[in-house]
């Protein structure tokens, strides 16, 4: 039987890689330098996350808990349409960050060695959602 915490780690790595590709794809399409800088920052953050998550073991996630709580309800894949506008890409990124924030918070509650890392990632995702929300507002104002 596959370790459920390894499934969580694999999911987190996959979402981080997808986010990096999404932000990298749209960075050249954006005209304003503020949004370009944000996307470049998000690309670097996702690359760093992928590296850290790839090196992590399930044992680092679990603290003193006797049993591993179910997390399958948090492994939600927010699918991207084939062709997407910048506005839709930003909304997609916001929805995906919401999913990963909830997952990282739940993993942090396990109290393992990686607890502070997952709390920090959840906080980063909340900041990214706010920043991406501001981008969405700027794009909507241009219409």
- Percent helix range: 55-70%
> In one word, what is the shape?
elongated
CATH class designation: Mainly Alpha
Total strand segments: 0
C-alpha end-to-end distance: 52 Å
- Output mean pLDDT: 86
Q: State the low-pLDDT regions, or none.
A: none
- Topology pattern, helix = H, strand = E: HHHH
Number of helices, counting only DSSP H or I runs of 4 residues or more: 4
Query: From the alpha-carbon coordinates, what is the Rg to the nearest angstrom?
Result: 16 Å
Alpha-beta content class:
mainly alpha
Architecture, according to CATH?
A: Up-down Bundle
By CATH, the superfamily comes out as: Ferritin, core subunit, four-helix bundle
CATH T-level fold name? Ferritin
Main sheet summary: none
What percent of residues are in strands? under 5%
Number of domains: 1
Please provide a brief summary of the model.
By secondary structure, the protein is mostly helical. It is 68% helix and 0% strand. Helix 1 packs antiparallel against helix 2, helix 1 packs antiparallel against helix 3 and helix 2 runs antiparallel to helix 4 (115-142).
């Amino acid at each position: 039987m596959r370790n459920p915490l390894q499934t969580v780690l694999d999911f987190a790595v996959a979402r981080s890689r997808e986010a990096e590709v999404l932000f990298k794809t749209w960075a050249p399409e954006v005209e304003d330098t503020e949004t370009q800088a944000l996307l470049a920052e998000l690309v670097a953050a996702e690359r760093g996350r992928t590296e850290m998550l790839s090196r992590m073991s399930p044992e680092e996630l679990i603290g003193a808990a006797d049993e591993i709580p179910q997390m399958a309800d948090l492994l939600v894949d927010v699918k991207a349409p084939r062709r997407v506008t910048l506005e839709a890409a930003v909304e997609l990124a916001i929805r995906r960050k919401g999913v990963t924030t909830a997952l990282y918070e739940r993993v942090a509650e396990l109290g393992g060695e990686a607890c502070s890392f997952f709390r920090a990632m959840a906080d980063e995702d909340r900041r990214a959602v706010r920043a991406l929300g501001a981008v969405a507002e700027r794009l909507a104002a241009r219409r």
